[in-house]
Every structure is written in structure tokens, then in C-alpha cells.
Amino acid sequence: MSSAPARLPAWLALSGAVLVGVLTAVQARVNGQLGLRIGDGLTAAAISFGSGLLLLLVLSVALPAGRRGVARLIEGVRARTIPWWMLAGGLAGALTVATQGIAVAVIGVSLFTVGVVAGQTLCGLVLDRVGYGPAGVVAVTMPRVAGGALALLAVVVSLQGGVLDEVPWWMLLMPFLAGIGIAWQQATNGRLRQRVGTPLTATFVNFAGGTLVLVLAAVVHGAATAPTLTVPTEPWLYLGGVLGVIYIFLSAALVVHTGVLLLGLGAVAGQLIAAFLLDLLWPAAAGAGVVLGIVTVLIALCSVVVATAPRSWRPRRRPGRGGAAQG
């Protein structure tokens, strides 16, 4: 068993969480455009995850930490100290990438992001409360609840202006489910990272499972619908897997320092800022508009500030006679 990692400063851990969100938003745009150009979102998702898996395979073989992590993984599975559900984080990753490939080209990065925000915030609160993440039980304090409520308010604001009339309901439901999966995936990968000693192996397991699921789904979908596929030549369209490797690696490394909810809220801020800029520079078929986008980003940033409010802000209770508190 590896020793516990040194605690990162709060500002550094939260900055990393914001970077996770930025990378997620950029990946969503890349995978969405790849799905549009190829003509099939599931095939695009399988390509994205498959490229990430190849990169991780090379790193796991080339780096000593990767080889040690794989050895601990095999040993843990054989000894049953690593349960099967710790290996299932790739299912959530597969859902997220598939949603990007199917929906983002239509609804835009911003609407994709706000759906993820809703699912990620609610699931993060629950997982922290029950102690599912590697940080154990994280108190659901009033600042955390208020921060989560503000994040959901950002979702409500972003859906104003007739957006719901332009987008099929299931395209908004998919990002919500993906958000739930992302929160669970971050906690699960964080726990697996503790068992194997490196985020690299946890990320590799995530991509291996996700690639398998997506390839099977793409094959079944292709056999049923026989889509006409094209092969775009722009190299940047194939960077989604690399971006996914980076942000899932960071998530697995950071969640032990932040808890599930704060990792999610930091990522939310990064996602919304990047999504607003991407949709501003590269508009999609549906969007909330510039003013609503700015308001949404500001509310989301406030949610992170409120959720990270130190407990010392709360008034202290003074002991009175007989142990009673004085008002």
C-alpha cells in the first residue's frame, strides 16, 4: 500500500479542478465536431476513447510508475482487495464522450455543460455525504449546499430565452445523466488511485472499460443503421482522447484533496467559462445568448466561492456556565 499523498494547498487543488473543467469543455467541442463530420456520434466517441487508450498503454509501459501501478492492479484484483466496481469508472466516461459526440454539435458546449452541472452538483453532494469518495465523509455544510444551489441556478438561467423550444428534451437529459456519471467516476477513480498508487493506472482502467463499451455500441449501432461514414483529415478533430486522458488523470489525482463536490464545482466554473467562450467564437444551432452566458458564468463562479467559504466564517459559540452556550 502506498503512503497518503501530501495535501495540496486549497488554491492549487481548486485551480486544477478549474483546469479539468476547461479541458472537458474543449473536449466536448472537439468530439462533437468529430461526430458531426464523421456522421455518427458513437463512432466518434469510440475513436476518441480508443486514441486515449493507446496513449495510456504507451505511458503505462514506458513509465516505471505505470508498470508499478499495473502490477498493483493485477495483484489487487487477484487478492480481491480491488472490487469490480472500482474498475467500472469507464462506463461513465463512455456515456460522457458518447453524449458529446451525439449532442454537442446541435446544442452547443454551453447547454451540454449546464446539463452536466446539474447532475454533477447533485451527485457530488450525495457522494460526499455518504463518504463514497477517497476523502471519506465530507461534511455537507451550509456553504456547500448554497454553492450547489447557485450552480443549479446557473443551469436555470442558461435555459431561458426559448432554448428548450429549440432542443429535443433527450439531448438535455443525456448531459444531466453524464454529469451524475462524472461525479461518480471522479470518486471511483480517486479510490482506485489510492489502491494502485498512481492516477495513471486509474486513468488507464477508465479508458480500457470505456473503449470496450463504446466499440461494442458503435458496432451494434452501425449494424442496425448502416450509417454513411466519412473520414475527416483535420488532425485537431482527433485530440479528444488526449484531452480526456489529461482531465481524468487530474481528476483522479485531485479528488482526494478536494472531495467530490468541490472538484465538481471547480470543474463547473472552468467548463462554463470555456463553454461560453467556445460558443461565442464558434456558435452552435442552439444557444442561450451572450448576456445570459455572462450571467451564467458569474453565478457559477459565485457558487465556487460560496462553497469554499472557510468554516471560520461561522460565529463561534462561547461556553457558558455548566457547559451551555451563551447567546
From TrEMBL:
Coiled coil feature spans: none
InterPro entries recorded: YdcZ
A Gene Ontology term for the protein's cellular component: plasma membrane
Transmembrane parts of this sequence: 44-63, 84-103, 109-127, 139-161, 167-184, 204-224, 236-255, 260-278, 284-309
Lineage: superkingdom: Bacteria
Keywords annotated in UniProt: Membrane, Transmembrane, Transmembrane helix
Protein name: DMT family transporter
